[in-house]
Specification:
alpha/beta; six-stranded parallel β-sheet; 8 helices
Length: 233
């Protein structure tokens, strides 16, 4: 069975360490990480991968120093301003998963405007996880299901309450930065996702690094609970 790569998810780790190695403030690392994100969107589109989900800010990241958190939101604000036109012109469909209600009204409005502006694009679907946590998503989905339903619910029925409703589960999850954990990211969706860890810090993740991950994915046999013989038949 040939592996079909439709959806890549990325835990973008290592911005702070990238900056510290160069004697720079952590926010400089996040700025370099934003540039890497801009490039990776184009690389994914060039490789005809339809969905890209990136972990930009977790629900636990609020615990970081206040100046870093505020700097991250300012960086996102600027990123949207600088990229919205290009996203529209290059066919990128911009979407957000996570609970954005904690963000400023101004930033929420800007996010919704960008989603609306790019909603008919279909070259690549870019999902940015903001104030996102996998456990939180499941709890929010469960509460929504309880509010709407009075009877049992199966897996397919539950999916529609997730932030990723209508989006296929990731085929490949890449984590940069040398850590070997999933950090509360897409807990429901990655049940059968192939997970690739690399020591490369996110600002240094480039086309070769992406192709290495894709090449590794191509060697994997995805059995989904079946035997190798069943998959190969």
């Amino acid at each position: 069975m040939q592996n079909s790569l439709k959806h890549v998810a990325i835990i973008m780790d290592g911005n702070g360490r990238w900056a510290q190695k160069r004697g720079l403030p952590r926010l400089s690392g996040h700025e370099a990480g934003a540039r890497a994100t801009r490039k990776i969107v184009e690389l994914v589109k060039d490789r005809r991968i339809k969905y890209l989900t990136i972990y930009a800010f977790s629900s636990e990241n609020w615990r970081r120093p206040v100046e870093e958190v505020e700097g991250l939101w300012k960086l996102l604000d600027r990123f949207i301003d600088e990229e919205v036109g290009r996203l529209k012109e290059t066919g990128v469909n911009f979407n957000v998963i996570g609970d954005i209600s904690k963000l400023s009204d101004r930033l929420q409005a800007k996010i919704r405007h960008t989603i609306e502006l790019t909603k008919t694009n279909a070259a690549v679907f870019l999902n940015i996880a903001l104030n996102y946590g996998g456990r939180d998503e499941i709890v929010r989905a469960l509460n929504a299901a309880i509010k709407e339903r009075s009877g049992p619910i199966d897996e397919d029925g539950f999916r529609k309450y997730l932030d990723t409703s209508g989006i296929p589960d990731p085929d490949l999850l890449i984590r940069t930065g040398g850590e070997w954990r999933i950090s509360n990211f897409m807990l429901w969706q990655i049940a059968y996702t192939e997970i690739y860890f690399t020591d490369i810090l996110w600002p240094d993740f480039d086309g070769k690094a992406l192709d290495d991950a894709i090449g590794w994915f191509a060697t994997r046999q995805r059995r989904y609970g079946m035997t190798s013989e069943q998959v190969e038949s």
